[in-house]
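Anyone up for a design puzzle?
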């Protein structure tokens, strides 16, 4: 009976993750993303939700926070105002870039409008290539890029105090 209950609990947990489609846990990962430099990782351009083109390679050598989200992710939606607040607080020190994927562009535009995250750019990742480039497999996720090119990744809901601490550390160099 105990094994059956454990299997049922595990099945319900998996079903819950599938229904929400968002990362439930948090997994920090530090390093240089398999030896690739930040310049190589940022050597890409894309269309923004606002309709412009953004060349991420212009950000090499600068502190950058990449926020990977989807328009249907409830966790992303809940943390969006806090991400926007920290981005505004560090506006002249750290560049925040949203990288939405897995949804129609119209839904991405609506997400940005409804969550107040229009204060920073969001590069559309319709084919998942940016997520793959940075090793992101679920949302929300953050990739912190230091001026020396090292990166640190975090998957899951990131408490605002931790996001602020990471932004401050990046700004300090």
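Challenge accepted. My sequence:
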């Amino acid at each position: 009976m105990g094994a059956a209950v454990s299997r049922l609990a595990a099945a319900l947990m998996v079903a819950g993750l599938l229904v929400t489609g968002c990362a439930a846990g948090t997994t920090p990962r530090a390093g240089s993303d398999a030896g690739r430099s930040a310049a190589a990782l940022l050597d890409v351009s894309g269309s923004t939700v606002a309709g412009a083109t953004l060349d991420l390679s212009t950000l090499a050598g600068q502190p950058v926070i990449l926020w990977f989200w989807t328009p249907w992710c409830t966790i992303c939606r809940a943390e969006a105002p806090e991400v926007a607040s920290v981005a505004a607080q560090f506006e002249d020190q750290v560049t925040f870039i949203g990288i939405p994927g897995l949804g129609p562009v119209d839904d991405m535009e609506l997400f940005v409008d409804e969550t107040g995250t229009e204060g920073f750019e969001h590069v559309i990742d319709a084919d998942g290539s940016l997520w793959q480039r940075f090793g992101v497999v679920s949302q929300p996720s953050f990739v912190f890029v230091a001026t020396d090119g090292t990166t640190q990744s975090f998957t899951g809901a990131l408490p605002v105090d931790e996001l602020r601490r990471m932004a401050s550390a990046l700004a300090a160099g």
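A detail worth pointing out: The chain has one domain: 23-172.
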